[in-house]
Amino acid sequence: MTPDHRASSDGRAPASVADDRRVPGKRQYLRFDDRRRQLLDAAGRLFDRTGFGGITMVALSTEAGVSRQLVYDHFADVGGLVTSFVEDRLARYSARPEHLEPTGSAEATVAANFRHLLTIPPSDRRIIHLVVADVRAPELDGARQLLLDHEWRQGRHPARRSRPSGGDMALMLTTMSSLLSLADAVSNRLLRADEAEVLALRVVNALHA
Q1: Cβ neighbours of residue 108 closer than 8 Å, sequence gap 6 or more
Q2: Residue 206: half-sphere exposure toward Cβ, Cα within 13 Å
């Protein structure tokens, strides 16, 4: 595929991105994985400031200080960028501190999961919440499915089927959205952590009764 046919931030092919290889000054050389991490971190800053509406390939290249061509070398479009961001954050936060490992009863597991959620930076939680809640944006479908698959594999749903049904997925999205809202309430000092933990347990029990 030539540069003229790469997708733009809104899914349409720009007239050309060939000239975009030229950027002022000398860009620091980074290995592929390190550059990808830099771009994902820049995307996180954009999400935090502008929400999903501010995420474009042009905006990301400006935020990261790189060319659009380099951004397209890592992500085909905005949907792929968001999916990669969620995948990166799931990998980053899947390993929890030993004292937050769920043990014992189902209630203790819910409490441990919620306490772990509170350790995730609020800016990253807001992005995950956006992906969970905004079902109208097709660009978020891949990231949303990634979250649902992760939750299902973690066994945080009481059903015992090999694949989730549409109702299962709706229930998982509702549960995630509720718990993320409670975590945000703690960050905004509307609730103490212990109060939010009690409410998290009540929410999960009510939704999964």
Answers
A1: 102
A2: 10
Residue type, 157: H
Task: Please give the Cα distance from 73 to 52 (Å, whole number).
Answer: 21
Spatial separation of the C-alpha atoms in residues 6 and 105, rounded to whole Å: 51
Q: Could you report the per-residue pLDDT of 1-60, keeping only the tens digit for each?
A: 333 333 444 444 343 333 333 344 455 677 888 999 999 999 999 988 888 888 899 999
Q: How many CB atoms lie within 10 A of CB 171?
A: 17
Closest CA relative to residue 153, chosen from 180, 129, 172: 172
Average pLDDT over residues 107-122: 88
Separation CA 81–CA 83 (nearest Å): 5
Give me the DSSP letters along 63-83.
Answer: HHTS-HHHHHHH-SSHHHHHH
Percent of the residues in the chain that have a pLDDT greater than 70, as a whole number: 77
Tens-place pLDDT, residues 137-149: 888 888 898 888 8
Mean pLDDT of 124-146: 87
Tokens of 55: 């995420």
Question: What's the pLDDT score for residue 93?
Answer: 84
Helix runs in the chain, H state only: 32-50, 57-64, 68-74, 78-94, 106-119, 122-133, 141-153, 166-187, 193-207
Q: CA separation (Å) from 32 to 20, 27, 166, 190, 208?
A: 19, 14, 38, 42, 43
CA dist., res. 182 & res. 203, Å (int): 10
